Amino acid sequence: MVNILLPLLNILLYPLNHSLPFYSKKFGILHQEQMGTSEALFENSREDEIVDSEVKNIKEDVDEVCNKVNQLELTMNEVEQFYSVANKKHRNTLKASSLWKDKEKEKQSASFKTRQQDSICLETDASKRMQALTSEFSEILSDITQHKWAGPFLQPVDVVGLELDDYYEVIEKPMDIGTIKAKMEAKDGSGYKNVREICSDVRLVFKNAIKYNDEKDDVHVMAQTLLKRFEEKWLKLLPKVDEEERRQREEEKKAQLDIQLAEEAAHAKKVRELRVELDAVDRNLDQLRDMAFQKCRKVSVDEKKRLANALGSLTPEELGHALEIVSQDYPTFETSGEEVELGLDHLSHSTLWKLKLFAKETLLQREKSNASLQRNKNTNVNCNNQNGNTNKRRRSDTEMKTFRKRSRKPSN
Predict the structure, then answer these.
(1) How many domains in the chain?
(2) Which domain holds residue 128?
(3) pLDDT means per 10 residues in the chain (412 residues)?
(4) Signal sequence span per UniProt (predicted)?
(5) Alpha-carbon span 30 to 39, nearest angstrom
């Protein structure tokens, strides 16, 4: 529809632009210096005048439609990119697994809105469970710190005071229970994310002491004893930790699915909106086309003769499309017979313009296709000539070598 409307507007706006077509760069229509015999066939007369204000109004409407189409195109590209990435993720999935995922996805999608409403509650529950586990872990840590041998591990090692010059060469990450407690109580987001992180640091406190001190050293023995005591109590808490981590994985999986469903829902909404807006653009273009054709000047007798010649040069398939254009304006016009009489003098000027533009575009495309075929043919001929010359040179070289061999005198 755009291809029909814009060339027509080019003709309408000819007196204003003095050059056809005015939208050539944007819509890929040929410039005037590129026009071939088909353009000469439909060269327009400049004698007729068109009301400038009406033409400008149509042009402004077309500009508005073009801007809208550009916006829709950007949205369409975004939607295509989203579904392209989504398809790549699931391309290598087995069919059975895919069917299971589709069914599971339907179930998840059905409860999507409900889960959205419950998401805040789930986050609150997870936070409470984490606090409960942290509280139980704090009891374990408190039991360790109250042990009579806990003193050396409650504060950072006094490297300077104890003159431990090689401490940082041996110990990569110093740790102490005081630092652990401070991190557990942190409110600025720098605290531990889960109980396993706390457990890892507690182990590090005692493993550092075991690593740096000799086996017979008191601190080494004390660290081994406290580490063993800690591991015993940790094993009792571990089942609850495992269960909480399992629940977190499930909730994260559901959250990821919710995000995916939300994105798909948003893009599905965009697709629906695109359809509505494209239908509106389509209707707007129909109106503009009708307005443009109504403002067309009358087709001269000479132009009708050139149009008749052009229609006569169309293929049967192309001529069928031309007759469909006529039948759109004249519903009672029969196009199904073996022979169809088409009297151009009996057609309205708007219909003649439609036929004229259709024939013009068809012949332009044919000229482009023929020119492309000719270029390819010339390229093939040049390649064959080059190959032939190469073969001749090779034969010539072979014959020369043979001649030289035959001309050699036998050695004594």
Answers:
(1) 2
(2) 109-255
(3) 47 38 32 43 46 67 79 80 71 46 52 56 74 91 94 94 93 95 88 92 96 94 96 94 89 82 81 83 78 75 88 87 85 74 82 86 88 80 63 54 44 43
(4) 1-19
(5) 10
